[in-house]
Amino acid sequence: MSDLLLSDPLLLRALRAWLAEQLRVVDEAIEAAESAPRWWIWEKRRRDGVTREAELHRVGCWRPGEPNLTTNQLKEVLASGAVRVEECPVCQVDPQSVLRPADG
Ligand SMILES: [Zn+2]
Q1: From ligand 1's centre to the CA of 6, what distance in Å?
Q2: Cα of 55 from ligand 1 centre, angstroms
Q3: 61 shares a domain with 27
Q4: Are 95 and 83 in a shared domain?
């Protein structure tokens, strides 16, 4: 930033207000992205109807199914260990990577 900008309180307050608005917009986008379903699990059922294995898919994968799980819901399913979830050969999300804390 130029010395002129840094020495002008009115410009600095306008810049601060603009940056605050940008943060608000990004926070809303993060909240919307985190609350939207982005995942689904395709279950491989056996003849007895019991699910033993499943594949994890994310938004954009062309395999059958529609996103119906948020990231938090997916983490609950994976953490429960009730179903063995494998990586889809198309979208290739390692289920264990979902359970790891995000960087930063
Ligand atoms: Zn997939």
Answers
A1: 50
A2: 7
A3: no
A4: yes
